[in-house]
């Protein structure tokens, strides 16, 4: 099994992520987050918000509508050019993008004789390449035939840019400043796959940072945000050797873009025999968008979106540095990065998720040593009741203690707290560390401070 298959199996087994609408045979490119997945994903979004909004004086947040006036997508260029070229196999009707066929070049430039065989059926009989728009259409209104065609947003970005003027005039921010947002986006991906990596419904966490329209200053901000975002992943435990930047070649940049880098994650880290470089996947994009978005919205809405700079005493359209991360991709890669298969002793292996305590779905599990001893259950329940006021903690009394430890290892729970007979007399408990498997005695009234210290 490769790492994608291992994580998919673990995610389902433990309740992180399930295939969408599974009992009806599923729906390609959709996923449902289970009880552990929703906690993990929420922790990632909360950490993003904390570092990008709460801790900063120059960034504010927004939560814009998913469905927008369709003119937004004309202005942003999504209706005209948000598309992928694809070919269809005439024999089995499977459709592929160039990268799914291992073709490095633009499909429009590849001669029929140089096309590879169909990965699905092995034949080599392709249609001409066609552009395929990725926007998901929807219809608003109650009267059939009079409904307005609109779109589910293909990126969360435009909800910020159409509110640039609102935010600048209703808050105290001054350029340079940023607007952060987290929310769902939808793309009619031709080939969804690799678990949640390429989904049709997914979440993004973004910052749109507005700067003066000056080359030097905006590029300094670009470099700054590039490094900040890398440091954010590292601060939550992602291993440095599994992260790298990929610079988009200048000739492949959108015409308005001045620079673009991806933060990539190495999905091949467990496989020393994998071909070098093959496992690096985009997790987040850092883009210098010039004044493209605001300029387009100004032209299409016919509203003055210029900003009055009090210091310079002049009006201008700001330039934009964007950081655009996928919440689902971050969730997937944090899971992969934390995944370990460890030999505990001869004939005894465990799977453990070494998630950073800030991201772990449950910070601790609380157990009575024996579920049939009411005095142990009562004390354990009161500890669980106290801790859950402050932390996400889980109760477990199923099976033996060894099985409970292994289940919590797979859930990524950093600490297991066991109430035993000594606890009744000494008012302390055993706390087992997920990563080292060491056990220490901690007074019951020190548990809260102990967990707090681990979440800093
Ligand atoms: N506003 C810029 C923008 O949307 P993008 O590179 O198309 O740029 C940004 O998307 C991020 O959104 C990607 O780096 C990725 O993490 C996430 N993303 C994009 N398409 C996705 C998909 N189909 N499934 C899951 N995540 C996706």
Description of the structure:
- This protein has 13 helices and 23 strands.
- The model has no long low-confidence stretch (mean pLDDT 95).
- Helix content is 30%, strand content 28%.
- By secondary structure, it is α+β, with helices and mostly antiparallel strands.
- Helix 2 crosses helix 9 (327-338).
- It starts with a helix and ends with a helix.
- The chain has a 7-stranded mixed β-sheet with strand order 3-9-10-16-13-12-11. Strands 20-19-21-22-23 form a 5-stranded mixed β-sheet, with helices on both faces.
- The protein has helices at residues 3-14, 35-54, 71-76, 78-81, 157-161, 164-170, 215-235, 292-301, 327-338, 374-387, 401-411, 421-426, 447-454, and strands at 17-19, 31-33, 59-61, 83-88, 95-96, 130-133, 136-140, 148-152, 177-186, 201-211, 243-247, 259-266, 280-290, 307-309, 314-316, 319-326, 339-345, 348-353, 364-368, 393-395, 415-419, 428-433, 439-443.
């Amino acid at each position: 099994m490769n790492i994608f298959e291992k994580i998919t199996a673990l995610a389902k087994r433990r309740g992180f992520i399930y295939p969408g609408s599974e009992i009806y045979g599923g729906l390609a490119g959709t996923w449902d987050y289970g009880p552990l997945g929703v906690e993990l994903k929420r922790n990632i979004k909360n950490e993003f918000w904390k570092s990008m909004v709460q801790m900063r004086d120059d960034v504010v947040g927004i939560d814009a509508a998913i469905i927008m006036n369709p003119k937004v997508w004309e202005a942003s260029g999504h209706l005209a050019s948000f598309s992928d070229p694809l070919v269809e196999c005439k024999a089995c009707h499977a459709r592929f993008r160039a990268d799914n066929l291992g073709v490095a070049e633009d499909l429009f430039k590849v001669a029929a004789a140089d096309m590879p065989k169909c990965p699905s059926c092995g034949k080599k009989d392709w249609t001409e390449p066609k552009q395929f728009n990725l926007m998901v259409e929807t219809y608003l209104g109650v009267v059939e035939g009079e409904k307005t065609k609109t779109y589910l947003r293909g990126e969360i970005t435009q909800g910020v840019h159409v509110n640039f003027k609102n935010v600048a005039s209703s808050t105290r921010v001054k350029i340079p400043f940023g607007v952060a947002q987290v929310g769902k986006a939808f793309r009619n991906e031709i080939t969804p796959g690799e678990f949640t990596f390429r989904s049709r419904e997914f979440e993004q966490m973004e910052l749109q940072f507005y700067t003066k329209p000056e080359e030097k200053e905006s590029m300094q901000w670009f470099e700054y945000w590039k490094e900040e975002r890398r440091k954010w992943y590292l601060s939550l435990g992602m291993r440095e050797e599994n992260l790298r930047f990929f610079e988009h070649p200048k000739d492949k940049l959108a015409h308005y873009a001045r620079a673009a880098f991806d933060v990539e994650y190495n999905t091949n880290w467990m496989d020393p025999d994998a071909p070098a470089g093959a496992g690096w996947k985009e997790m987040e994009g850092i883009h210098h968008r010039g004044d493209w978005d605001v300029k387009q919205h100004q032209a299409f809405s016919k509203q003055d979106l210029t900003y009055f700079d009090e210091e310079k005493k002049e009006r201008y359209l700001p330039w934009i540095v964007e950081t655009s991360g996928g919440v689902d991709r971050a969730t997937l890669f944090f899971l992969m990065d934390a995944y370990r298969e460890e030999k505990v002793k001869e004939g005894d292996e465990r799977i453990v998720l070494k998630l950073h305590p800030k991201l772990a779905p449950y910070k601790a599990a609380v157990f009575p040593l024996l579920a049939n001893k009411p005095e142990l259950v009562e004390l354990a329940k009161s500890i669980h009741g106290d801790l859950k006021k402050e932390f996400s903690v889980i109760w477990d009394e199923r099976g033996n203690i060894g099985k409970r430890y292994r289940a919590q290892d797979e859930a990524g729970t950093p600490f297991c707290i066991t109430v035993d007979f000594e606890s009744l007399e000494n008012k302390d408990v055993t706390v087992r560390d997920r990563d080292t498997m060491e056990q220490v005695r901690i007074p019951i009234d020190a548990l809260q401070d102990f967990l707090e210290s681990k979440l800093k």
